[in-house]
């Protein structure tokens, strides 16, 4: 019998070639969640609209294992009238997550923004009393947390209660004006009563700026000392090419961790513009350009931040990005309307940016 060595040899060579290629390249379906499997879940903020777009759902399922509803669980959207809840969009996100075995972080239960019109007013238009407002807060938290009990593992219970002004402690919101600081502890108690298993967070921005960090620490310590059921703190992580520094970030994580709280980054993006809360109008010299310098600096920032997260892994229980890709970011319209930003790890065509490769290289 004549063996055709020629063909055998060719097939063998082909086999070796294919094996070599797969060894060098990560599997096509490997994503952030897989690289970070030993560390913590990697999440992303989503809308129901994104979950209807096949390009976006493919990217979500490849890269992430946790979801946060970007807007649909906030009090205004989910509870538009006192006796009416709008569950549809929130349910759709939770159903999608359940169907694909993704975790869900609930966002959020008590915030000064995106509140429904009826919340702070009596039927006659006058301001509600503290007693009435706390009862409304209780009923809201009880209904929302119980509906998703066992499906949502963590809640941002109170969002952004610290004032921007360094000379003030708590933000002078309607919550604070009507209830004083009690609404904070009460919100945690209501959430804990509704779902004792849920991991309860205080969540805020600019948490790494030393002065604001100290005020947040003071609030968290007060809550811990009073045995309020708080488990963790969320650093929103709306950062930029110029902040935070490595030291600020490490100090913040370790300081909050020292209170026995877990830490997550809950809304990560790295703006190509500096932080400016109050400007709305675009300047004539501003373009939408994503310059090579911006890209380089952003890549270095992402690389640094994830190195710190890995180093501080004993405190960290999750990292969530605020939006999926540069195709759409809330920073395209905030704070400056109509100025394109490029803050995420995937570009406008859903392709990984250089920063992505640095984040998964360790
Ligand atoms: C933002 C959403 O991304 C926008 O779509 C919405 O218009 C405003 O809120 N801190 C938070 C998030 O806790 O809820 C905010 O989300 C971004 C800042």
From TrEMBL:
A matching Pfam family: Glyco_hydro_10
GO molecular function: endo-1,4-beta-xylanase activity
Catalytic activity of the protein: Endohydrolysis of (1->4)-beta-D-xylosidic linkages in xylans
EC number: 3.2.1.8
Superkingdom of the source species: Bacteria
UniProt GO BP: xylan catabolic process
Residue ranges occupied by any GH10 domain in the UniProt entry: 26-362
Signal peptide residues on this chain, from the entry's feature table: none
Record's keyword terms, sorted: Carbohydrate metabolism, Glycosidase, Hydrolase, Polysaccharide degradation, Xylan degradation
KW Transit peptide (keyword) present: no
Matches recorded under InterPro entries: GH (IPR017853), GH10 (IPR044846), GH10_AS (IPR031158), GH10_dom (IPR001000)
Protein name: Beta-xylanase
Naturally occurring in which organism (per UniProt): Hymenobacter ginkgonis
